[in-house]
Amino acid sequence: MPSLPNISRTFKFTPSLALEALKSQKFDDLDHYQVRLDLFNLSIMADYDQLLCLPTLTAIDKYWYQIETARKVMRQLGGRALLADEVGLGKTIEAGLICKEYLARGQIQSLLILSPASLVSQWQQELSEKFNIDSITTDSKLLQQNPEEFWTSNQRIVASLPTAKSAKHFPFATGRNWDLVIVDEAHHLKNRNTLSWKLVNALNKRFILMLTATPVQNSLIELFNLLTLLKPGLLKTEAAFKKEYVNSKNGRVPKNPEKLRQLMREVMVRNTRALVDVKLPKRFATTISVIPSSAEKKLYEDVTEFLRHPDVPLDKLSTTNLLMRAGSSPNALTDSLKQLSKRIESDVLKSLVKRSAQIKKAEKAKALIELLQQSHQKTLVFATFKATSDYLQTMLQEAGIVFVTFRGDMSLKEKDAAIEAFRDQVPVLLASETGGEGRNIQFANAIVNYDLPWNPMKIEQRIGRIHRIGQAQDVFIFNFCLKDSIEEYILSVLHDKINMFELVVGEIETILGNMDEDLDFSEIVRDLWLKNQAKAELDLAFNQLASDLLKAKDSYKETQELEEQIFGEDFEA
Q1: Cα 41 vs. chain centroid, distance in angstroms?
Q2: Nearest partner of 289 among 559, 2, 491, judged by Cα
Q3: Which of 142, 254, 301, 398 is the most buried (most CB within 10 A)?
Q4: Among the listed residues 197, 166, 207, the one whose alpha carbon sits nearest the alpha carbon of residue 82
Q5: At what angle do helices 521-531 and 316-328 cross, to 10 degrees?
Q6: Rounded alpha-carbon distances, angstroms, from residue 44 to 37, 47, 49, 63
Q7: Residue 442 to residue 473: CA distance in whole angstroms
Q8: pLDDT of residue 30 exceeding 70
Q9: For the chain, first and last CA: distance in Å?
Q10: pTM (2 decimals)?
Q11: Which residue, 93, 72, 60, is CA-closest to 211?
Q12: Which tens digit of pLDDT belongs to each residue from 405-454?
């Protein structure tokens, strides 16, 4: 048998050279069948007809249009593309597939992901859990200690766009070469006069993916600015673009739309729900506002008053955490209060600790038991805090309700066993915030938010565990809260005023972005709660927030109509 070239090493960097090297060998003996089979497989893979990474990705659902998008971007668009799928179709999965495939083929080493600050940790987590890609983020202490070393010594970085474009970091980010750059929420680059646009334009990049569900929000010039980052010169100069493609009377209406679409096909993929035939079942949300006991009510009010006092030395994060725990359970609150009492000398705090620890039966837990006893659905119960989850385990056991738990600190084997038991035998899965992440649990069709995240995107992530492609049943969402709590006000805004639970998964994120690119919803509601004391004041403040969100929702709907006019359904994978 003739000696073989180093196939794996050669193929890793240049598939075509590897194929030529193999073809130059003569294998006539049947004993060499496996070698010829390998050659055949290599010839299929060389041009991205088959993705090498797919067999290794077991933690995600992969849909045909996402795979086709990845293949199209690499095979036809040269790894420089605007991924503009409608909300909820998985642009991040498509970007992850492309990244993983390039890594598998050895075509990239360095990776830079730019995202809003609020999504940095989420990107790092999803890269790790779904694609087994490790990365460092701009939240790392190294960034503060030695910015130059951070930017030059790390191959895979997830960076906050505001951080990367700052004067301190701009030179380091743009001073090296990047094999692949991914920009999430790329509509933040719609204005070429901003530092965000200038940063991405200045990056030395081989491949670039830009992700946005709303590539045009106000004017076609925004589209020109985005596509110029991907393929400079494609649309010529701004003046030439305006003359050729923009209606002089209305900057939102295109002239020569078919010619413009033909050019955009060179850099853009846009899948729509109608095209990929994504028909999700309906979802129905119910708010269960529980009347607290007199002890619970007084404790909640006193914790709020304690936090409203100007002399309380707590940072915003600690304040938010304490309020969320107060809305979750007395057990979670007690844990937090005990920790605070070690740092702060306060008689009021000592009294709160004692009173919180004395509450053994929470009214909200009683209401949960009643719901589960009446339910005949597979139900996923979310509890954010471990102390709350431990308490609910005791309550469920006492009530004779069969359940299994799913927590982030469990081993892979334990997680698999919990999901299998939930699917085949057990009616209730008690889950932490990461419960069911990456798991196929569409066999369940009811969710209980026992405690409510203040970030609407986290609520959507919970719902997305079961309300996703593959779900055949209508989905029921039960949101628990204490009457007159901050969570009740949040649900009033999200559910009653803007009908968040009737939106497509992912749309609320776009709507919040329309209000303010850097908006932190949890900070807003916390500040409203602490600054307004009387019920009339609270009602007025939260009604104003709802009004602002409704305006942003209307703006989003207008953008959808504009994009339908510009793009139609001509950019699918």
Answers
A1: 35
A2: 491
A3: 254
A4: 207
A5: 80
A6: 11, 7, 6, 20
A7: 9
A8: no
A9: 44
A10: 0.68
A11: 93
A12: 998 888 878 888 998 999 999 999 999 876 555 566 889 999 999 999 99
**Cα gap 469→487, rounded to integer Å:** 29
Distances 553 to 292, 403, 494, 509, 515 between C-alpha atoms, Å: 34, 39, 12, 10, 9
Using CA atoms, how far apart are residues 129 and 282, in angstroms rounded to an integer? 29
Please determine, for residue 504, whether its predicted confidence score (pLDDT) is greater than 80.
no
3-state secondary structure of 298: helix
Q: What is the DSSP string of 5-29?
A: P-HHHHHHH-HHHHHHHHHTS---S
Question: DSSP secondary structure string, 237-289?
Answer: -HHHHHHHHB-TT-TTSBSSHHHHHHHHTTTEE---HHHHT--PPPEEEEEEE
- CB within 8 A of 538, min separation 6: which ones? 489, 528, 529, 532
Give tens-digit pLDDT for 217-241. Answer: 778 899 899 999 999 988 889 999 9
Question: Residue 102 is inside which H or E element, if any?
Answer: helix 91-104
Residue where the block lists tokens 């413009």: 260
> Using 50, 70 and 90 to split pLDDT, how confident is the model at 550?
very high
Spatial distance between the Cα atoms of 92 and 89, rounded to a whole number of angstroms? 9
- b/e string for 415-451 if b means 16 or more Cβ within 10 A? beebbeebeeeebbbbbbbbbbbbbebbebbbbbbbb
> Of residues 510 and 376, which shows the higher confidence score?
376
**Cβ atoms of residues 84 and 269 within 8 Å:** yes
| DSSP 8-state class, residue 497 | I
Q: What mean pLDDT value characterizes the chain?
A: 86
Per-residue tokens: 512: 């919040």
Stretch 275-295: mean pLDDT: 88
Sign for the pseudo-dihedral over CA of 36, 42, 45, 51: positive
> Which tokens is 559 given?
């953008």
| Collapsed DSSP state (helix, strand, coil) of residue 83 | strand
Higher pLDDT, 192 or 279: 192
What one-letter code names the amino acid at 151? W
- Between CA 204 and CA 181 the distance in angstroms is 9
d(CA 554, CA 386): 39
